[in-house]
Design brief:
Length: about 450
């Protein structure tokens, strides 16, 4: 939908002239002959661009612009100004106005400026709409979370998915790298095409090359028929290369060539096969260390990582733990026919305090096991086998430099409570506070987490 334009100028002939000129170019244009009338019209909404005379009786252009900024009205403002007021117009641009036009008006410049201003308004509106959708999002495809960290991931996926750029996902094991790759595919123009995933760490060198590129009949002993590889199978869609840094160096060379040429030869073949694919890769390794050690070729990394995407571990987005846990609980309770209402308060406290070194995968498996084993209507710490989990975790509290005192207190309190297996008296004693204070802190810390998704 084309954005409407408002022309506000106290000289009627200028306002009417601009209206006719812009209407001839296909724009819907309204006019106002003073700032007060213009402000009333702007408040009713719908304008993408406002051309305002800098000097008008009553409410002038600068005052009109100030009111629009205060009310967060997103229209682009172009000032019409005489020579003596150019400095004021330039200052207004520093404050966010789009541009200015000097009198007498240069019609060619006006006609060039208006489409750009309209486009700027439309881009801002699209971004604002996206931000509003992401702000209320707790699910994104099969990804779950509403923390700031996950919202940044969602925003990156939304921005990158429509492109053809290669994306490299970096994250610890269990963080959901394949789910991110699937979400990228589902949001892309290739969504109706195949999504082919291969774990490069799961195959020895000879088999991996065969899995990637396929083979011709008779290429080796036992090759009784031709076989297409993942590159061919992903034609028209997305190829996801998980744990790509586990690939042998000579296979990395062949992969790099295939990516650059968008063609390859099957094992035992002579014909170049052209493919149209989008490649998404992933690793759980530290990129710099992998490159320095020779595990990952630097030229291959740069080819794969046009857009790098860092997926945070679960301990860095603790606000998502409860949302994830309750989502898993609903799923497994339904699958197993269990009438489970939720987690006990003590179980919630443990879920928040444990570091989850295995990330989302560990949380998912823990909740599934608890759902199967529990005999009550609520999952308790015993159902989660929290004592076993705690024994596998170190007893240190890790607090980064720059952490707020509030967050440090939260981490220490929850970690101590977890360490003493939910014993309020022991936890209070170790922390040097009374039980009432401990319970108050636990309630405050848990209440600060986002509400679970329904």
């Amino acid at each position: 939908m084309q954005a409407k334009i408002l022309v506000a100028d106290d000289e009627r002939h200028i306002a009417d002239g601009l209206q006719m000129l812009l209407a001839d170019d296909g724009y819907e244009v309204d006019t106002a002959t003073d700032g007060t009338a213009a402000w009333e019209m702007i408040q009713e909404g719908g304008y993408g661009v406002v051309l305002a005379d800098l000097r008008m009786p009553g409410v002038d252009g600068l005052e009109l612009f100030a009111r629009m900024r205060e009310a967060a009205i997103p229209a682009e403002v172009i000032f019409i100004t005489g020579e003596a007021s150019v400095a004021s117009a330039v200052e207004a641009m520093r404050e966010g106005a789009y541009d200015y036009l000097e009198k007498p008006l240069n019609i060619a410049r006006l006609k060039a400026l208006i489409p750009k201003a309209v486009e700027a308004h439309q881009v801002k509106q699209a971004n604002r709409s996206l931000e509003e959708r992401l702000a209320n999002l707790s699910r994104f495809g099969d990804l779950i979370g509403q923390s700031d960290e996950m919202r940044r991931i969602y925003a990156t996926i939304e921005a990158a998915a429509p492109s053809t750029a290669s994306i490299f996902i970096i994250g610890e094991s269990g963080t959901g790298k394949e789910l991110v790759a699937q979400a990228i595919h589902d949001k892309s123009p290739r969504a109706k095409g195949p999504f082919i995933a291969i774990n490069c760490a799961a195959f020895p060198r000879e088999i991996l090359e065969n899995e990637l590129f396929g083979h011709e009949k008779g290429a080796f002993t036992g090759a009784l028929n031709e076989k297409p590889g993942c590159f061919e199978l992903a034609h028209g869609g997305t190829l996801f290369l998980d744990e790509v840094a586990e690939m042998e160096p000579d296979i990395q060379v062949k992969l790099l060539r295939a990516l650059e040429q968008r063609s390859f030869r099957r094992l035992g073949g002579k014909k170049e096969i052209q493919v149209d694919i989008r490649v998404v890769s992933a690793t759980n390794k530290k990129i710099n260390k992998a490159i320095d050690s020779g595990e990952l070729r630097e030229d291959l990394y740069h080819r794969l990582a046009v857009i790098p995407l860092h997926l945070p571990p679960l301990r860095e987005r603790r606000g998502d733990v409860r949302i994830l846990a309750e989502s898993f609980l609903r799923r497994y309770a339904e699958e197993n026919g269990k009438p489970i209402r939720g987690f006990s308060a003590e179980a919630i406290e443990f879920l928040h305090s444990y570091r989850w070194p295995g990330n989302v995968r560990e949380l998912k498996n823990t909740v599934e096991r608890a759902t199967i084993l529990t005999s009550g209507e609520q999952v308790t710490p015993d159902d989660l086998r929290f004592q076993e989990l705690i024994r596998t975790e170190d007893r240190e509290v890790r607090i980064r430099v720059g952490t707020s005192l509030e967050q440090a207190e939260r981490t220490l309190t929850l970690k101590t409570f977890s360490f003493v297996e939910g014993d309020h008296q022991k936890a209070a004693s170790l922390l040097g506070i009374d039980e009432e204070t401990l319970r108050s802190r636990l309630s405050r810390f848990l209440a600060s987490d986002p509400a679970p998704a329904t």
